[in-house]
Design brief:
This protein is α+β, with helices and mostly antiparallel strands and about 140 residues long. The chain is built from 3 helices and 5 strands. It has one domain: Alpha-Beta Plaits (2-Layer Sandwich), CATH 3.30.70. The protein is globular and about 40 Å long. Helix 2 packs across helix 3.
Length: about 140
């Protein structure tokens, strides 16, 4: 499953190196699960502290989600798959997997101020969130 996801992302212009922020078993991802992707677009003047993100921010998020978080992972952009001479489109992408959308929404609502205050500690990028249903 992880290999298919990487190949799909390569098709769309990303080449990613997956850094495991929490022990995960992506092979247990099931159809119907909710996948939340938090994307950090690259651009002039954009900064991203991967060390802080992996050691502080993502573990904090995992604590907020508790047992409702089934898996999480982090991708670090390393190359542009379609135009190798161009910069990566995303510096990083964080993924969270849940059985129910409400598990994500409730935890974010309860902790939104803490989340907003933590973002400037590792990036000056306005993250983009995409919530999807796992199909395959």
């Amino acid at each position: 499953m992880k290999t298919k996801a990487i190949l799909l992302l390569l098709f769309f212009g990303l080449s990613l190196s997956c850094l495991q922020a929490q022990s995960t078993d992506i092979s247990k991802v099931k159809k119907g699960m909710i996948k939340v992707a938090i994307l950090y677009p690259n651009g002039e003047g954009k900064t991203f502290d991967m060390d802080y993100y992996t050691k502080k921010h993502m573990p904090m998020m995992a604590d907020f989600f508790g047992s409702s978080l089934k898996f999480m992972s982090i991708d670090k952009g390393i190359a542009n798959g379609i135009m190798p001479d161009k910069p990566v489109p995303f510096l990083a992408i964080g993924y969270f997997y849940f059985n129910k959308l409400s598990d994500y929404e409730n935890a974010v609502k309860a902790n939104i101020e803490k989340i907003k205050l933590d973002i400037p500690k590792y990036t000056n990028i306005q993250p983009i969130a995409q919530i999807s249903e796992v199909i395959q």
